[in-house]
Amino acid sequence: MDLIDLVILISGLIFLCLWWRYSSTTGGGPKNLPPGPRGWPLVGNLVQVILQRRHFIFIVRDLRKKYGPIFTMQMGQRTMVIVTSSQLIHEALVQRGPEFASRPPDSPIRLVFSVGKCAINSAEYGPLWRSLRRNFVTELITPTRVKQCSWIRTWAMESHMKRLNSEAFDNGLFVEVMSSCRLTICSILICLCFGAKISEERIKHIESILKDVMLITSPQLPDFLPILTPLFRRQMREAKELRKRQMECLVPLIRNRKAFVEKGQNPNSESEMVSPIGAAYVDSLFGLEPTGREQLGEQEIVTLCSEVISAGTDTSATTAEWAMHHLVLNQEIQEKLYKEIVAAVGKDGLVKEEDVEKMPYLDAVVKETLRRHPPGHFLLSHAAIKDTELGGYSIPAGVHVEFYTAWLTEDPDMWSDPGEFRPERFLEGDGVDVDVTGTRGVKMVPFGAGRRICPAWSLGILHINLLIARMVHAYKWLPVPGAPPDPTETYAFTVVMKNSLKAVILPR
Ligand code: HEM
Prior knowledge:
The chain is mostly helical. It has two domains: 1-56, no CATH class; 77-507, CATH 1.10.630.10. It has helices at 3-24, 46-52, 56-67, 86-95, 108-114, 127-141, 143-148, 150-171, 177-194, 200-216, 221-224, 233-263, 281-286, 298-329, 331-345, 353-356, 360-372, 457-474; strands spanning 70-75, 78-83, 174-176, 196-197, 272-273, 388-390, 393-395, 400-403, 475-479, 489-492, 494-497, 502-507. The strands form five sheets. Strands 1-2-8 form a three-stranded mixed beta sheet, with helices on one face. The protein has a three-stranded antiparallel beta sheet with strand order 3-12-9. Strands 4-5 form a two-stranded antiparallel sheet. The termini are far apart. Heme binds at residue 454. Keywords: Heme, Iron, Metal-binding, Monooxygenase, Oxidoreductase. Its cofactor is heme.
């Protein structure tokens, strides 16, 4: 080898080493991003995450131990800043709320379903988001509207109890909790949106399409490495086909409702219009002209109604299932709750919405469930509205800011015996003063906090309270002999029981 070759080789090696060091450092460096695990050139931490073959939430749980309150992960071209400490979450979401209230750009597949970010959850912080959210709150969540629609819950709960009864009869006394709760909540939300009672079969069809939508919009490789997009043309084709099916499934409900609103007549027997004109969410969307968008068409209306059904079903059903899991395992807690319900409505009475609001132990059971099993371990992705800083580090406007809120409720500095399920802590103990909206401080925020807090958190709690109170009032819940409930978690949009809860029910 000539001397010149040797010089070129050594220079090449030095250059490669420098390039590796520069491009594989996550965080720190001249950009002053929060530190993070060292990644590989070009792909950052992406391959390391894929190779672990575990869901991202479980990887972050381990990384938090090493990197603490704020760290960066470089996932391909996507920079993610993960915030885990109570103080920083409160500072970003509440004290400096508007600064961190935006959402990052959507992937091309997500844009198909959000019709260009025309949904409350994905809209950037600005006039469109404000008008959509204001309309949602006025039309669905105000106390008057909740009261006006309480008959929908009464109807859905009756069907729920009948279904449990016949399922137990068919299976020899045991029932599966999750599927039934999901169907009930989904039917309530469909009726709130479209004002129509539809068959169980159609509800299941809508539910399965929305599940497919959630699956196809979950992060995929091109979201992190856009250069690979051309290789994923098939996925885009499938997404468009699914969007077509979603439209075919929901547009008839919209058209039927429109005919009902305009002509006051029930258009067909397949979907019976039951909410008075003005009481269904979709009625408000017919005339809405949100700032920055023309009058909404069927595409936008399908997106906005699907968002309500998707956002409200799995979150609430997951919580109901985990609560029942603990009540099955802990008969003492179940008895205490049963006694509270009987004291309020009698042994043969009917649990109504106004009753569950006056049940402090039920409230404590539901809060303890949300603490031990927050349905989401992260909030939805946030983004800063402009370049800013947090915890002494830079946060550029485009990056994904992820709030890892599950750690808050596992932190032994904030909760005594955090792994234990003890509703009493919310009556006397470390949970008494907890503010689940995070405004006064962040100890548990299952619904987020600040500007982007879940706008329907009280409605979600109402659905969960009603389901649990009705189920415990009517039946004693026991483990299936020889097959006790298994608390293993898995991720399926929310953190659910890996093996769905099955329980024996005995009429009280
Ligand atoms: C136990 C029940 C529920 C839980 C745990 C829950 C949790 C959450 C969380 C964590 C967020 C994200 C907050 C953030 O990004 O900072 C969110 C947003 C949202 N939720 Fe819920 N939710 C529940 C029920 C519902 C229900 C019943 C509905 C609809 C009827 C709903 C509609 C929404 C909407 C529209 C957003 C987007 C808000 C925005 O971006 O401004 N949620 N929810």
